[in-house]
Every structure is written in C-alpha cells, then in structure tokens.
Amino acid sequence: SWTMESFIDKEIERIRQMVGPVGHVVGAVSGGVDSTVAAKLMNEAIGHRFHAILVDNGVMRLNECQVVKKMLGDKMGIDIKVVDAADLFLGRLKGVEDPEKKRKIIGNTFIEVFEAEAALLDKEHGGEIEYLLQGTLYPDVIESISFKGPSATIKTHHNVGGLLEDMKLKLIEPLRELFKDEVRELGRLLGLDDELVWRHPFPGPGIAIRVVGEVTKEQVEIARLADHIYIEEIKKNGFYRQISQAYAALLPIKTVGVMGDKRTYEQAIALRAITTVDFMTADVFSSFEWFECLKRISSRIINEVQGVNRVFYDVSTKPPATVELC
Ligand code: XMP
C-alpha cells in the first residue's frame, strides 16, 4: 500500500537514478512550502549537487531572504545562494502602476536573473548541471497555465525556455503527483519545522502586488512593516492556522487623521485574511475574538508604521474579489 514514507524512499532512489553519480541540479527557492520541500528532497538524494537559488526581488517580506537562507542553508544544510537583484527589479518597476505590467516585469526579470545565475553555477561545476528542479504540484499540472511567481514560476517550459533550450536542462518535478496537504505531510516527515510546513502561500510578485499603484522602495517598506506586525500578532494570538492566507496591503489614498493634537494626512493599510480550500474561492475570516484582535493590530500599525493613519479590513469574498489586490 502507498505510504508517504515509501514515497520518500522511492522518490530519493528515482532522483539518484535520474541524476546519476556526477550530475548537478539547480532550482529556485522562495521559502514557501513547495520549493522548500522539493529542495529538501533533492538535498537528501544528492546532497550538495543540488543548488538552490533565492532571488531577492526587492519585494520580499521583512528579513525574508536572511531567514530563508538561514533556514535552508544553515539548518537544513542545503547549498543555497541568495542573489540580490532588488535594485534591478525596483528600477524596472519605477513609474509602473498597471497590475499586469508589474507582474510581467517581475516575472521576466526573475527568469532573466535566475537563468544568468544558473549559467554561472553550471560553469562553476564543469557544465554538469543537467536538471532543473520545479516544485510543481498536481493541481498545477492539471489546471494552471497561468504565470505564477518564484516557487511556481518556472512552471511551464515556455517560461524557462532559456534554461531548457540553451542549457539543455531537463525538468525534475518530485511533487507533481501530490496535493498541498500531502506536500505538508511530506515536509513534516522530512523533518521540516511546523512553522515552515504551515506557512501561508506568498505570491511570486510579492509585495509589489500588495502596493496599489507605483511600487517604490518607500511604499514597499510601509507595506512590509505593516505586514510584519499583522502576521506577528496573528501568530501570537493563535489565529495563524485558522487562516489560509493573510497579508497587509498599502492603499495609496491619503485621508485625514489625528495624532496627539496634530492633524495627519497619510495613506491607508488594508488587511486581508481569508479561509479557503483551493484558493479558487475564498471566504473572509471572521469571529468576535478576531475582530477584537484586529482592533489591537490596527492601533499597533498606526502607531508603529510611519506614513499610515488608517487601517481597513477587507471583507470581500472571492469571487467577486480576488485574494490579492493587484
Ligand atoms: P488571486 O489573487 O488570484 O490569488 O485570488 C489566488 C492565490 O494565488 C496567489 N497568487 C500568486 N501566486 N504568483 C504566485 O505564486 C502570482 O503571480 C500570484 N498571484 C496570486 C495568491 O497569493 C493566492 O494565494
């Protein structure tokens, strides 16, 4: 009978057979569940012949790149390189307000940076990189043709044309028969921390699609700080596992407020918290206790985040709204 333990053994053996005794594998990681579990599996199978690349696109969460590097590199022993491309991404996003344009810029820049890095690694390892790891899940295989970010970015051949064609890389997709809950179980059995196994999903275009309007360093900083406070309080108050996905977004709308005895005229933060099974439809997370918690979070954000004087809670369901604002 099928068990996750036997899946692990079989998959590690299959990977070893595929890659052979000298081959190397490269893959993008984001710190999300899928790419981390896939990376861990590769590390178990071929050790440091698997190379993880984390692209810092300038729109990651607070301290995220350092945290992910520590977790995958130091704690899990995975060979990981963080590529700081923040200025490149933010430079290209300058003046861009249209959501789809933002997504395209980030997607294309990601592929460009990742491909260049993979080529460098290939040189370093004597041209022995033969495979590209992707954390594709079963639902991605059956339903998704749309562009998704880092963890799933390089999901279609089309998106990594360069790597698959120029470097003649072959795809390796160890999670392609699994559903999300199975990936979490796999992660748990592979010894990943609960914190990681139960992480909310985070979109490839990151905070850029959570800053409405132009994405600047300053705007990202505001959304990032508010989000950090929000998630910290959600965890502290025991709501994290009840919520499927939560985040703070920045609305570039100035309204009037009062701080001490002074008038303020600042931007607003929107808080989102949804429950869902498949992310195709979503409900708003709500309860009396949650609303009390939201009020405390609101006052923390307004007090601690400069440039914000108002907090909204997004009560729209999907459909007609979407999970992300952009
Ligand atoms: P929407 O906004 O479409 O989001 O209701 C549904 C789920 O998908 C995530 N999402 C993305 N994930 N790249 C990703 O990797 C993306 O471009 C992207 N856009 C949305 C979103 O966070 C939610 O979980």
UniProtKB/TrEMBL annotation:
Give the catalysed reaction(s), semicolon-separated: XMP + L-glutamine + ATP + H2O = GMP + L-glutamate + AMP + diphosphate + 2 H(+)
Binding, ATP:
30-36
Uppermost EC category: ligase
Cellular component per GO, a single term? cytosol
GMPS ATP-PPase domain mapped to chain residues: 2-199
* Superkingdom field: Eukaryota
Coiled-coil residues are none
Pathway assigned to this chain's UniProt record: Purine metabolism; GMP biosynthesis; GMP from XMP (L-Gln route): step 1/1
Instruction: State what this protein does.
Output: Catalyzes the conversion of xanthine monophosphate (XMP) to GMP in the presence of glutamine and ATP through an adenyl-XMP intermediate.
Report what the protein is called: GMP synthase [glutamine-hydrolyzing]
Its source organism is Bifiguratus adelaidae
| Full-protein interval shown | 214 to 539 of 539
